[in-house]
Design brief:
Layout lengths: L14 H5 L13 E2 L11 H8 L13 H11 L6 E4 L1 H13 L5 E6 L3 H7 L5 E6 L8 H7 L4 E7 L11 H10 L4 E5 L3 H4 L13 E6 L12 E5 L1 H10 L7 H12 L1 H25 L2 E3 L5 E5 L4 H10 L2 E2 L1 E2 L9 E5 L3 H17 L9
Parallel strand pairs: 1-11, 3-4, 3-5, 5-6, 6-7
Antiparallel strand pairs: 2-8, 7-8, 9-10, 10-13, 12-13
Helix pairs in contact: 2-10, 3-10, 4-5, 11-13, 12-13
């Protein structure tokens, strides 16, 4: 057959891959006040920049080694180095955990709405994803989750505090799940721990089916370096280390993380700033008549109603980015607003007042 008549055939991926729910982050031009991704809205610690400046050209020629930094992180968290695994952001942590534990015939329980990447990575496995919807209060759906536990339950994922709702499961809630499903791994994703102040990290090594995730993208301001962490019993860590790439955490992240952990004064300052800002945002939302859910994290979920898209666009036109979460289960008409420094929150409130007026919004629309 002549080359011009050859029919080109594009090889297709696995069926599971074709079924994966796509994640579309609102990237592109993010100039302005970034109240959309729950990032640190200010900056990382100045000690991080000092560490970054110490990197030589020769340092970049070598493959990164994370073990010595894992020892530092373990000491900071009060756990053993053998219970600590640094990852390329929490996204990789979730991915390798699901790859290690979810097989055909298994079930994964997921309270929703929650962080989108749990569903994305779960759908790349052959396990069955069982979503458990929270009620209108967005409180942690403990009893519905307990009713869904079966012999096939292999993994339960809990974002605590949860995104996009800001709600938290209590320690008692988590312990009931752990005890009800000793045959399942229970992931407690504490990405927003610093704004909440409560943790189950002390269960690591004592309760073999508890795995805790942390990120350094939020309070530490290292989202661009992509570094996260899994903490688990040594028995689980054996399999997680087998799945992960040995070089997935880059050399710059490994150089900067110890400096970030060392500067506790900076972390304390930023947390205090966020908590003060969150109260100011609550006051403004109440004054404007915007429904919101009290949050344990560095963001607040609001209900704008049918004009949620127009509101998000109007805010963007004023140089303030917010995150439309209306497509999340149970979140119709909802917009999430990140809480950063008081300066950024003040700018967000000013833009919100003008945007609501521009779109002709009234509190009745969000009922």
């Amino acid at each position: 057959m002549p080359e011009s008549e050859t029919k080109l055939i594009t090889p297709q991926p696995r069926e599971l891959v074709r079924r994966i729910k796509e994640y579309h982050p609102p990237l592109g031009d993010r100039s302005g006040v970034r109240l959309d991704f729950n990032e640190n809205t200010f900056a990382c610690s100045p000690k991080v920049l000092e560490a970054l400046g110490s990197v030589s050209r020769a340092d970049l020629t070598m493959y990164p080694e994370r073990e010595h930094v894992e020892r530092i992180a373990a000491q900071h968290l009060g756990i053993k180095p053998a219970q600590t695994l640094l990852t390329n952001g929490v996204d990789e942590a979730i991915h390798i955990l699901f790859e290690a534990y979810l097989d055909a015939g298994d079930e994964m329980l997921l309270p929703v709405p929650t962080f989108s990447m749990y569903e994305v990575y779960a759908s790349a496995t052959e396990a069955q994803l069982i979503q458990v919807q929270s009620d209108d209060s967005f409180r942690f759906p403990l009893e519905p989750l307990l009713r869904k536990i079966s012999p096939a339950t292999k993994l339960i994922a809990i974002a605590n505090p949860n995104s996009p709702t800001g709600q938290a499961a209590t320690r008692a809630d988590i312990l009931r799940l752990v005890e009800a499903a000793p045959h399942a791994m229970v992931l407690v994703d504490e990405a927003y721990f610093h704004f909440y102040g409560q943790t189950v990290m002390d269960l690591v090594g004592r309760v073999p089916n508890v795995i805790v995730a942390r990120t350094f993208s939020k309070v530490y301001g290292l989202a661009g370096l992509r570094v996260g962490l899994l903490a688990a019993d040594e028995s689980a860590m054996t399999w997680l280390r087998r799945v992960i790439s040995p070089y997935s955490v880059n050399a710059l992240a490994l150089t900067c993380l110890p400096a970030a952990l060392e500067d506790q004064a900076y972390v304390d300052w930023y947390v205090k700033e966020v908590l003060s800002s969150r109260e100011e945002l609550y006051t403004a939302l109440t004054r404007l008549g915007v429904k919101y859910w009290p949050s344990e994290a560095n963001f607040v979920l609001t209900r704008i109603g049918a004009k949620h898209k127009a509101f998000s666009v109007a805010m963007h036109n004023r140089g303030v980015l917010v995150r439309d979460r209306s497509s999340d289960p149970g979140c119709d008409g909802c917009v999430r607003i990140t809480v950063g420094t008081r300066e950024h929150t003040a700018a967000g409130i000013q833009a919100m007042e003008a945007s609501l007026a521009e779109i002709g919004w009234s509190p009745d629309e969000a009922q």
